[in-house]
Amino acid sequence: MAEKTWSYGELTRIAEKEIDKLMAEVRTTANFEERVHLQKYAAGVLMGWMAVTFMNREEADEQRLKDKLRLAGIGHSL
């Protein structure tokens, strides 16, 4: 297996892009169960990012990514 090194910034951008994509799907999916599944997947991306960046993450980045999981106007969120 080839070794790859990612910077904190790269990992954060990758996680943020994936969360944005998933939450956009949440907002356009009519099926409640599918919305919940996608939102939980997005929360999993956040948790993975938090695990990898433990002890080195910026508080502002953490809060920004957490805020992306909010579903204003839908009435439910994780």
Provide a quick synopsis of the model.
The protein is mainly α.
Topology:
Elements: H1 8-28, H2 32-52, H3 59-67
Helix pairs in contact: 1-2
Question: Portion of residues in helices?
Answer: 55-70%
Count of extended strands: 0
Biggest sheet: strands, sense, closure? none
Report the structural category.
Answer: mainly alpha
The averaged pLDDT comes out at 91
Tell me the distance between the termini. Answer: 36 Å
Helical stretch tally? 3
Low-confidence stretches: 73-78
Strand content range: under 5%
Secondary-structure element series: HHH
Could you tell me the radius of gyration in angstroms? 14 Å
What does this entry look like structurally?
With 78 residues, this protein is an all-alpha fold. The chain has one domain (9-67). 65% of the residues lie in helices and 0% in strands. It has helices spanning 8-28, 32-52, 59-67. Helix 1 (8-28) packs antiparallel against helix 2. It is globular, with a radius of gyration of 14 Å. It starts with 7 loop residues before the first helix and ends in an 11-residue tail after the last helix.
Keywords for this entry:
mainly alpha; 78 residues
